[in-house]
Each structure stands twice: as C-alpha cells, then as structure tokens.
Amino acid sequence: MITDTAEFVKRVDGAADYIRNALSGRVFPSVCIVLGSGLGPLSSMAEEPLEIPYKDIPGFPVSTAPGHKGSLIIGNLSGKSVFMMNGRFHYYEGYPMETVTFYVRVMGRLGVKALLLTNAAGGVNLDMKVPELVAITDHISFNAEPVLRGPNIAEFGTRFPDQCHVYDSELTDTLVNCARDLQIRISRGVYAYSKGPQYETPAEIRALRIMGADCVGMSTVPEAVAASHMGIKVAAMSCITNMAAGITGNPLSEQEVLDNAALASKNSCALVKEFVKRLEFAD
Ligand code: HPA
After folding, report:
1. Which helix H or strand E contains 62, and what residues bound it?
2. I need a labelling partner for 230 at 20 to 30 A (CA). Which of 11, 121, 130, 159 fits?
3. Are 81 and 108 in contact (CB under 8 A)?
4. Which domain holds residue 236?
C-alpha cells in the first residue's frame, strides 16, 4: 500500500520523464497495448520500434512471470504510434497492487488516452470454446486486494470512483466489430479476477458461474481499475485458453494455457492491429 504519496508520484513522474526523453522526435502514442499470452508476436510487428527494457526505466518493476518479457516498445502499428507493454506485473508474483499498476500510472502521466489489456483466461461459461476470444464488459473481484486502498492521490483520480464504466463501451464495440469484420469468433463476457498463482478449485468455478462470470484469470482487473481511476479508456480481451477447473475433469496446466494462446495468436494479433487502425485518437 502507498504510504508516502508525494514520493510515489515522484517515482511515477520520474519513469514518465525517462520515457518522454527517450521518445524525443517521435509521434507521441495515445494508446498502450498490454501483450498478454499469445500477443507476444505483436511486439515484433511494430515499425520503427524503440525497445526500452523495464530495468532501464527508473522506478519500474521487472516482471518474473513465465512467457512474459520485460520491455516497453514504442513503434508504429497499423500506421499509428503505440506503446506496447511486452510483459506485465501480477499480484501473484509478490508485488503490491501499486507496483502491479505502476505502469498504468506512468501511462496516464504520459497522456495515454486508451489502454487495451489482453490476457489468457479460463472459460467459466459452458458455452465458451477454446481458444475463442472474449471482449470483457465487466468484472468481478470481490476477493482481491483492493487496488486503490490507502491514501488517494487526487492528481490521479477521485477517492470513490464509479465502477459502472470501467470498460469503455465504444472501445469494446469497436473491438467486437473488428472481430466480426475479420470473421474472428468473439463473445462479450464478465471476467472474474483470481489472485493466483494456484488455479481455482472446481467449487470456486461453480460459485463464479452462479455469480455471473464468463471467464477467469489472474491479471487485467487491477490495471483496468487504475486506468479508469485516471480517466484512461479501457478495452480488454481474453483468450480462452482452457475450460476452468472442474469442467473437463482434466487437471489445468500452464502448458495448455500457453499452447492454446499460441493457437489463437494469429487471430489475436490480427484483431489488435485492426482495432488500433480504427482508433480515432491513437496519434
Ligand atoms: N484460471 C485462472 N487464470 C487463468 C486460467 C484459469 O483457468 N487460464 C488462463 N489463465
């Protein structure tokens, strides 16, 4: 939890200044894309890329999750200047929530207007088909460490932010329309946040289904909450890499998640590229 707000803001602004200086002479991106499982190939699709390892950015954490790299890429995608986070930070890695969401705060201070979060998730809704894509319309995170606990930083946002529009409906519609036009299967759904790193129990999955969840995963919600707190518009997309615990009778494995994320990779990358193309404020 943040205790010294002035020190925290200084750390965020220090990281933002470093990135701003590194960007000198380039068109400043208005969108940040977080490359979840299966989206890694997008990192090499940017034109004129500038790659900044997280370890070079003062105050930035370094990600430890398997399959997650650790660099910020600035480049042109579909003719637009974008930030791409190749690797994110998860609560299960041991970071406090302000560290999980640190990059979101930096993006907000850099003036980013839209954040596209992508992730791998387990299918809770029995109609889901692996490896389909889901446009996240809302989330459930009752059991999570609250992201905004501690003193509020008024420069970032309000003390009690409304949560009715965490996921921007226009951006989400754009995502769904892009998928339809590319003939990629996508549904809309509610994402349940699971702290991890252990997968859920079958009883937890049955409970989540009754509560209205369509999919479940260990990321995205902290970042979406921090971004919407700062007024950044959020769109989020899951790739259903497995049916959630207890549905097929098979044990869940990280390999299954990575294999199915890779299977969906072509579609996920094509969809994100089309989405960026249609963003109106992306430069
Ligand atoms: N549960 C939680 N996180 C996940 C899952 C799951 O079933 N699949 C991919 N990430």
Report:
1. none
2. 121
3. no
4. 5-278
Percent of the chain that is helix, strand, coil (3-state, to 5): 35, 25, 40
Nearest CA to ligand 1 atom 9: 121
Tens place of pLDDT for every residue, the chain, 283 residues?
Answer: 899 999 999 999 999 999 999 998 899 999 999 999 999 999 999 999 999 999 999 999 986 666 557 999 999 999 999 999 999 999 999 999 999 999 999 999 999 999 999 999 999 999 999 999 999 999 999 989 999 999 999 999 999 999 999 999 999 999 999 999 999 999 999 999 999 999 999 999 999 999 999 999 999 999 999 999 999 999 999 999 999 999 999 999 999 999 999 999 999 999 999 999 999 874 4
Q: How many domains does the chain have?
A: 1
Pocket residue to mutate for ligand 1, from 90, 136, 193, 200, most atoms within 8 A of Cβ: 200
Is 151 within the bounds of a domain? yes
Interval between CA 163 and ligand 1 midpoint (Å) = 23
Assigned domain for 111 exists: yes
Tell whether 283 is covered by a domain. Answer: no
Classify residue 80: in a domain, yes or no. Answer: yes
Distance CA 21, CA 170 (A): 32
Residue burial 239-271, b: 16+ Cβ < 10 Å; e: rest: bbbbbbbbbeeeebeeebbbebbbebbebbbeb
The pairing of beta strand 80-86 with beta strand 186-193? unpaired
Q: Which residue has the tokens 């939890």?
A: 1
Residue showing tokens 């943040």: 2
- Indicate which CATH number applies to the domain containing 186: 3.40.50.1580
Question: What token pair was written down for 232?
Answer: 């950044």
The pTM (predicted TM-score) of the whole model is 0.96
**Tokens read off for 21:** 């200086």
